Amino acid sequence: MTSERDHWPTRRGLLLASGLAACAARGVRAQGTYPDRPLRVTVSYGAGGAVDTLARIVMPRLGQRLGQPVVIENRPGAGGTIGAAFVARSTPDGYTLLDDGSGFVINAALMQLPYNIRQDFRPVARVATIPNVILLGPSVQARSLKELLDLARAKPGELDCSSTGVGSSQHLALEMLNRMADVRINHVPYRDAPSSQNDLRSGRIAMTFATATTAIPLNGQDGMRVIAQGGEEPIPRLPGVTAISELVPGFRSEEWQGVFAPAGTPRDIVARLNAELTEALAEETIRERFTALGARSRRETPEEFATFVAAEAERWSALVREARIAL
């Protein structure tokens, strides 16, 4: 004769199995309804900058596609590391995201960070790529990149080039040009773009590397002109401006920005975010606004974006080591 106790282990197993099945079902329902509340996108830089500007173009449309508001929160400071650190510590549920730029990988080459860009984040999608360009001031008579390089070789160390700071992508663009074109142009770091532009306009600085977004409205003003760009494709708003790589093979200097989620974010949520962002970026109105700013976007899976980020991290780390750049 069997007792109630003899059946207890079997009943316990059934109860446990039922509980696990219920939890699994709840998990499936939760993921199936993602998102069911607003998303927060942390921008690592201040309002009005290139990263913030592009984020405010595309994120409202992402929210419309997801059916939930996407709230942008600016967390500037320490070269963008404060915002990135915040997201790295956030719950990996798809509701807190990071919108960051090239500084995401450059910072990792320049300083000790409170996070690991490879281990603490999951790349979601690249939002945009913006070439850096060479913008000359009125004090330089060169009309082309060839004339500028000839002048730099004839007067080594006599030309000054500004940037928005040591370790910025514009600073690294100059170091790359010096090494690959065998010239010596001095780097003069500024705290902000307006100060650099004022000295360029007045002739105190010969040239600057700047993003196409920054340079487009300045091109043709007060003797300033863009003579070359660091991208691989033409910039519609700068017709006739040639690629630096035409004279300096292999040269490429472009700022980019993309969206990252905390490590551990479910792959299906990352895939959903990537798909919706990609479709939003392909819309004509957004493409037109990006083109006006000298930016472009492309279709890219999370895996392709992750491969790109890893390659960028290695590329800039190598240049920082070779040029001995330090903050």
TrEMBL record:
One Pfam family named in its UniProt record: TctC
Coiled-coil portions: none
Family to which this protein belongs: Belongs to the UPF0065 (bug) family.
Name of the protein in its database record: Tripartite tricarboxylate transporter substrate binding protein
Source organism of the structure: Roseomonas populi
